[in-house]
Amino acid sequence: MSDKRQPDSTGLQGVLDALRVITVIGKVVVVLLLIGFCFSGVRSLDDSEMGIVLRFGAMHGEVRRESGPILALPYPIDEIVAIPAKRLRTINSDTHWYALTEEEERTGEDEKATGTLVPGVDGSLLTADQNLVHARCTVNYRVTDPKRFIFDYGDSEALLRVHLDDFIVKTAAVHTAGDAVGDPTGFGLQIVRGLNGLGLGIEIDSIDMTVEWPRLVKPDITKVADATNDKGRRVADANSYGRRRKNAAKSEASKIEFEALAWAREHVGRTAADARTFERLYPKYMANPDVVRRTLYEDRMRRIVADAEEIFLIRDSDKRDLRIELQRRRKPKVEANE
User: The pTM is what?
Assistant: First the structure.
């Protein structure tokens, strides 16, 4: 009898040992699950994220703006929502752009339009001078107020796109077509000011705006613009030439006036000196006019003889001339290269 009961006791002991091992494993698993559950509300935010804690679906506490771990109760009590608020987001608008074919979208090159715009297919804008233009833009923005951006509006990005299209229409309505096409940057800045003033909890970082004429008339408009630019260039060149000639004439007039004043001062001074000399010599002349006339005559003759190369003396008696050659010491010629 004892030999028959021994195997049953050994099998029971094995079952008990297995149950104890299973119990231990179950306890370890439960402990791990409890630990994981307790720490399920812990999350780490990177430098580009902001965190919001939701308790039973409602916002709890303030927005966590710093990077690092954020603590909350386990789900479903609390939920941590990480928002890439500091990261640039992009939204595009081509509502007011003409329709593109698959080939044009693939290559990025527009084909020449051969027909009119199709309502409901081609987008366009009506400007202040009742012309049509096309516009599209890319807006880069950051979320500055996650609470307002997420909780105050159902779909903030969709609402931003609606407001973007609306501001494009409003801005075009106060600009002429030429101003809109010629200054897309100014066009876009007005849209940025409008979007920043909506209070959506965002800040516009930049906008890339493109405004163009309808493709059907774009070649003719380009020719008109080129002709206008050429006219402006020619007018600017003419004005520049006129200013240069005017300045040159003023400079020449100033030079002539200066030389005339210098000539006048020189001759007035010389005349005054001659007048003083005459006043000084006139009494002497009146006292003995023959001596003065002879002195003046001899002085003049010395000057004449000094410049003459040959002298002829003619006598009235024999009607013959006497030639006197004066050997003067000529000055050596100076070479041009010296």
Answer: 0.52
